[in-house]
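Ticket #4471: complex job returned nothing on first submit. Input attached below:
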Amino acid sequence: MKKALVLLVLALIIVAQWSFLLSVKSDTVSSSAFGTSTVIVSKAPYMYMRAEITVIPIITNNATVTMIFSNGTQIDLRDSYRFDVILPKSDKTMRSAVITPGLGVDLSDSHPIDVSVVANVTDNFFTYGIYGGGQQYINNFDVFWFKVQGTADVVINGFGVSVW
Amino acid sequence: MVEDDLSSKMHDFMKVLDQVKKYRAIISSLTDFAIILAATFVAVMFVYIFTSLSFVFDLNSPLPIPFLFIGLPILGIALGVFWVNHKVRSVKVGQWKTVLDEGAPGAIRILQELNWDTVYAEIRYAKLGFWLYGLAKTAAFWLLAFTITWFAGGYLVSAVHWSFNLTIAALFSLVLVLVLEKNDFQRRYDQIGQLDSLLWELRWFDNDFRRSDFQA
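Support reply: We reran it on our side without changes. The output follows.
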């Protein structure tokens, strides 16, 4: 009887571990940026997320590659540039996110973190692209983005967890 | 039946019954075996969870992760098999030898004390245990082979860009274990066959014995 109880406890631990592992997600993209491109890291509000971003400029004929962040900060790149982005939980509850993704944001409860590079975007992309149009400008997902002007290779590894 | 033959037949018979006792020990230690394997799985899952979280939170792992992924299953399975063997070895056998040394009277006394229905039931139970242990052992080795194959496959993917997925790893490791365990299966099959023939022989012997006029 005691042994059966031990087995039951172990089985419960395995189920709990499995459930926890299901809450850990990852997403990766390796893409080329040209013209004006946008690098987008997004997640559902109930996820904690870290993304490793590496931008490798491809400089030909003295062309410049510039990273432009949403607060206006600009960085001219000569060598590859790597940095981490952390998007903390913005909703402590585990409620399902009703996400209406736009271009470059592919989120759902089964895919709650997303990394993407959208090359050669237009000026109105940030309103009608990422957020899927003015009417759907609803903050039901968290997003970090920056622009890359010029030609570069971009590698993003995103990791997230909801149960934490 | 000649009385001299009786002692010798009883000797063989009791030796087989000792073997049956060992098989019963296998059955009773199967729960322990399952507990050890489940605990091993829990430990491996903890390592996996830690690895996943180290990616999420950018932690430097002080643990030798690849070693743990392969070492823990090996350790768990070895411990499980060792524990079952230990239980089997600790079964007391041969206690009938002193009685049988008395010759035919001793043999008849042992026979009279035997509960035939229990003996038959134990043999059937032992057969079942032998199969179950074989299956559990194969499953455990399969899990181990799968883990090793999965890791080796990861290196193959990076080295020669060979497409490698879970199904291929599972099938490959299953075939590998079946080939490596071939002799064990053969031995197991033979022993179960021997138990079957023993059962028939015993029924014959039992009939014979009941019709005879042996007195202790």
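Strands of chain A lie at 24-33, 36-43, 48-57, 65-69, 74-77, 81-87, 113-118, 142-149, 152-161. Closing as resolved unless it happens again.
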